[in-house]
Structures are given as C-alpha cells and as structure tokens.
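Ticket 4471: requesting a sanity check on a complex prediction with alpha-D-galactopyranose. Repro inputs:
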Amino acid sequence: MKKSNFVLYALTLLVFLSCQRAPSGSKTDLSVPWRFHSGDDPAWIAASFDDSKWEQINPTDIWEHQGYKNLDGFAWYRIRVAIPHSLTDDAVIKDSLQIRLGKIDDYDQVFLNGELIGENGINIAVKTEPRPDFFKGHSCWELDRRYVLAVNDPRIHWDQENVIAVRAYDQGGAGGMFSKPFDIGMVDLPDQIKFDFSQGGFAFEGDSLTSKQFAITNVSKKENFKGMLTIRAARCDNGNQLFKQQTALNITPDTRTVFTVNIKKDLAVPAILYFSFIEINSGREVSEQLEMPYILTPKPGKAPRINGASVFGVRPWSPFLYKVAATGEPPLIYSAENLPEGLHLHADDGLITGLVSKKGDYKVKLKVTNKVGTDEREFTIKCGDLISLTPPMGWNSWNVWGLSVSDKKVRQAADAFVSSGLINHGWTYINIDDGWEDKHDKNGNILTNYKFPNMKEMCNYIHSLGLKVGIYSSPGPRTCGGYEGSYTFEEKDAQHYADWGIDYLKYDWCSYGGIAPNPSDYQLKFPYREMQKYIRKVKRDIHYSLCQYGMGDVWKWGNEVDGNSWRTTGDIEDSWESLSGIGFSQSQCSPFSAPGRWNDPDMLVVGQLGWGPKLHYTRLTPNEQYTHMSLWALLAAPLLIGCDLTQMDAFTLSLLTNDEVLAINQDPLGKQASQVFKSDVCQIWGRDLADGSKAIGLFNLSEDPQSVDVKLDDPGLKGRWMMRDVWPQKDLGLVQTHFSMNVPPHGARLLVLRKD
Ligand code: GLA
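Returned structure tokens:
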C-alpha cells in the first residue's frame, strides 16, 4: 500500500464470476529464476560451464525492470532442468517436444546441452554452427519463442539434467526475455489447431452487432483431427449464457477454414465468446475466448449540446479558425456574445473566422439552438503567445496508411470527420504523416510527390470543412520513411507550410541521428530550435510537435524549444504490451505537462489500422481500447486517431465520441494525471480538473477480473463527493470514505468525483 497526496487506497483483489482461462496440461515450468550475465562469451554455450556465480533473473520480465536499466547489446540466460520421460505419457502428439521461452527482445540463439536448437523463433532441426550475424535485421521482439524437437533428437537428455543457454541481443529500449509461456512439454493439440480471429472486427449493422468471422487452422502437416466445435457466449457480469452452437468437424492436415458466428447480444452488455474444439479420440480440448465489443457511450440527444474545449489560444494577427462543436438534431443555429473585434461566427455551421489583433482574454458566450432547445457555454479566447491550450484532437495518416498516404485518402479522412459526426465532438486536425514529400528544387522549394498534386488546394478544402491540416518532416536530410527531410532547408520549408495553410508540424528526428550520432543536450535541442525559429516567423499558428521518441527526457526541455507537444516514447503498436508499456510509464512526465505543452505518448490504435496499404482491425480487445482512451484522456495526451475513418464501426465511433471522456482530456487546467497507486495487477491514476473535481482511472493490468477498493483518506478528499461513471455518463451516488468497483481484465473504469 502506498500513500499519495491525492488518494490513499486499500486494495482488495477479488476474482469475480466467469470469464476465466482453462489450466494447461502437464509441463515442466521454466518461469522460475534463471542465471543471467551481461556480455557475450562463446564459453557460455557449454553445458559444463559453471554459472553458479551468475545473478538470478525472472525470465518473464525485461531486464530493465530487474536492475539492468541501461543495458543494450548482449546478455545470456542459463537454466538447468530435468526433462522427464513421463511428459510423453498423456501426450496426444507423441513425437515432438517443445521448449517455450515467452518472447525475447530483440534477438536470440537458444542452445540445449551445448547445441543450437533455435534462432529468432525458428527451429534449428540439425546440428548447425551458430550464425554470427543473427542479431541484425528487423527486430524479432514480438515473436513467440517456441522451439520444437523430435523426441528422438539426441540433443534432449531424457530423465537427466539439461542445460538451456540463451544468447540474447537487445538493439535498444526494452531488452531480454519477457512475456509467457515459459515451459517444456510435448507438442499438444493447441499447438496444432489454432483459432484465428484476425479476419477483421465484429460486423455491425448500424448499431447492432451481427457476426464475427474466424478461422481454424491445422498447422500439422500429417495429423487429421475429428471432434466437436462449440461456440457459446456468456455475460461477464453474471456468467449467464447468451447463446450456444455446436458443429461436428473433421479438420484435415495443413488447412485453414473460415467460419462465421452470428451474434445475439445486447450491445451494451460486456460478454465473451468461448470457442472450444474437443478432439474425439483423446478428449483433449483447444479453447480460446474473445471479448465482444460493448458500447457504453450514450447516443447524443436531440437537444443541442456544446462540446469541445472551453478555451482556445491564438496569436495576434494569425488567421483564426475554430469550429464550435455541437450535437443535437439539425438544423443547429449558432451564435455568440462578446466575440472579440475582428471575429465572425457563421450562424449555420458554427465556424468562427477572422483575425484578433489585441492580446487579451475574451470571455465569449456561445449559444446553439434547434427546435428542441438551446445550449449555452462560456468559451475563453486567449489571444497571446501560447497556442494549443488543450491537447490537439485529430487524425494522423501514419498508423493506417503508412507511406501509402495520398491526397485522396487525406480528403476522405476529412470528409469522414464531418459525415461520422467526429467534428461535432471537437475533432479538428487532419494530419499527413510521412510520405508526401518529393525533392527540394534548385531554388530550395520543397516539392510534393505524385500522390499530392496540389497541397494548397487540399488544405483549402480541409479548412472549408472547418478542420485544420497537419504535415510532417524531419530535421535530418531524410525522414524515417526515406523521403526528403528539411535539413538546411528549414526556413524555406516553414514558409512553404505557411503558404499552403498548414496548422500543425510533426518534426521527426529520424536521420538527424546521422548528423548528431551521440547527441549532447545542446545537439538534441538544436534542430528543434532551428525549425521553430522559422515557424514562429510565419503569420500562422502552427502547432509544433516534436517527435524524437523521448530522447534526453524531452519532457523536461520541450517547452524550452517552444514545442507544443513532444513524443515521450517510441512508436506505439496495437498490442497490449505496447499500449500498457507506453501508457503506464507516463507518470514521470506528468509534472512537465501544461496548457500548450503536452506530453505525447503516441497515437491511438483503435479501429482499422495497418501502417498501410493493407489494413487489419486493431488487435486490442474492447477492454484494452477502453483502457487506451481512458488513460490517454487522463494523461492529457494529444488524441490522434490512427485508423481508416471510412470504415469505422459503431464501437470505434463510440470510443471517440464520448464527450465526458473527451472533456477530461480537454480540461482547461491542463494537469496531466499521475499514478497514485500500483500493485502487481492494478493501477490507479488521478488528475485534478479545473472545477475542483477529480478524475480517477482504475486500471486492471491482469487477465482476470478484479475488484478494486478505493479509500478516500487524503485531507484534500474530505467530505462528500458525487461519483460519476464517465463512460456511461451516469451518477453512481455519494461517496465519502471509500468505494469498491469491479474492473474487467485489461480494462478500466473512469470516474469523476464532484464536490457534493
Ligand atoms: C517515426 C515516427 C512515426 C512516423 C514514422 C514515419 O517512426 O515515430 O510516428 O511518423 O516515423 O516514417
């Protein structure tokens, strides 16, 4: 238990009701301490080598978490273990043994009793000399390390001591063994028969969940499996079964068969689909489970409601463009009182345009009316030096299209902001990432490539919708995608961006590493200062987004180079490891976030993604996506959607249009949440809001449901609070001293406590 100045918690961890995983069969556990040594020495291959003086290490977590913070390069793991012949007794597949070693970041060679048996996830079936350059090429950190040997392989010493030695190489960042499973056992039915859900997301028709495609793969080249496939769905809250269907199957060798399951479920109810295949002869089962999307965000009502930030920063004489975000039955009529001189509000679409010449804070009253009613809201325009007073909200092309981005795809995204209604919830920026550039011509003008025939015209089009445009470049000669960067052309590039009408620049370190290979503090800042000098010269407000993956603790000096946001980490991916690794490590950056100066833990990985051109549905479960949005809201993170907006399903849209969740992100106090409690399975993050309320996120990092008991002991939390469940937008009643809440696996509960 840990005391914090925000909340004091007693945490009771209870496992409740259904949604559990089945236990595994007979295996020798390897998730026990191994011997560990940094460095590299061929003598460490030998079974006879004495490693008893080596440190011990837990193989299921990266070495940085275990006292080796700055270790990159080589390190070795060794373990001595018996392989009992009895493992074969109840095996369905009698001829193959497997050694499973979780995952290894980035590369590995695995030796059994002095002989190489695997390398970077690939089995080495016969005696082979280790490849000296096994650690070069694309990182293998995400691959499962499962090495299979025939039972009569002489490298296995049955019923004797065996030595497994693993040579790992980390090319930077997190390093070494991690994840699960770690064991030795016979190859089993689940290793041969696989359920594959990567066909795409759940199908929706309007707001209803209708079906899900999945495949069954038999990876065995020779075995045929007959049995019964059962699919059932059960609610997570009370375990009640929603439906069940059974089919007899004969799964032939080396095949992949696609099936569709039709869904019957209330959209708001969290439920799980359970898939099971029971093989007739052995009675052995392969099972998987899949969370079904559930929608908590209420639909917008017919009455008008003004959304979006309540404060907006602009520099004197910069073109002003602000769309009043509002929902309600159309037509909506917009008006404003006390607009500063020089600004004009368009009554039919809520666009505010013009120029403000005088510095100052202008308190404007916005009004939106329709035939059902009126909503009013105070809106402060701060004309001064600072822009981006709340985190930017928009779309970025990278996580979906990668380098295949084009004018057409960007315009489609802008159109989708309007047609899907995202624009009515405060979503504003349409950002082109890498892949638009051609060369600089002989006069130093940056040219666009064939995919962007007319950048200015495209920007005009996006502005005409009430949206803003972002662009991407690098301070180096080349971008990360190999396109032309801004090195030595900074001034001209900045001017070009302004001429086109750019409102946001993501400036990505990339090949600047070649110019400053071991950058000093000064060198880290220099290229960012250089570009900002020119960005500030142009007559436009351009959000300046630093992208250099957190080097030199950029959160401590990003404001010094006048950045409006800065990436605090490497690139995010749509996996729980990536999401939770990034999201839950942001507390150290919290004190440095403020209006106009945001920590950026990278873009959203919900919906249809792919880093282009081929797309897939996010691999995050629905609960993980609730965690993603809740945590990014608490972190006051820039919210940049990274998916194909033309194929957005009802679930993804519901995640992105919850105005109470977005209001936490856009809170004008601009105070980023920090971690206030951490146990092995749960974390609690809290943030102060401008009106004196507290936003709290309860996160379950485990694979089982947990009940979290929160105690409000801090002097700042004395008194009675009205507790709001933010996702369903419902008051839960008064709390005074403590409360308990169920949190689903890898899921979140987002709460706001308001003074009673
Ligand atoms: C880096 C950045 C990404 C993206 C690519 C483009 O990897 O971190 O966000 O901009 O470059 O090449």
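Notes from triage: The domain at 28-187 is CATH 2.60.120.260 (Jelly Rolls). Leaving this open until the requester confirms.
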